[in-house]
Amino acid sequence: MALVDLKIPPGVYRNGTDLQGEGRWRDVNLVRWHDGLMRPIGGWRKKSTSAAPNKLRGMLAWTDNSSNRYIASGTYNKLFAYTNAGVKYDITPAGLSAGREDAAAFTAYGSGFYGSLAYGVARQDTTNIQPATVWNLQPWGQNLLAQNADDGKIYEWALNTGTPAALLSNAPTGNEAILVTEERFVFALGAGGNPRKVQWSDREDNNTWTPATTNEAGDLELATTGTIMAGVNVRGGSLILTSRDAHFATYQGPPYVYGIERVGTACGLAAALACVVVDQGAVWMGVNSFFAYNGSSVAELNSEVSDYVFNDINKAQISKVFGVSNSLYNEIWWYYPSSGSTENDRYVVYNYSENTWYIGELDRTAGADRGAFRQPMLADASDMYIYEHEVGFDYGTLTPFAETGPFRIGTGDNVISVTELIPDEKNQGDVNAIFKSRFYPNGTERSYGPFSLTNPTSVRFTGRQLRLRVEGQKLTDWRVGINRVDAVAGGRR
Question: Is residue 395 in some structural domain?
Answer without folding.
Answer: no
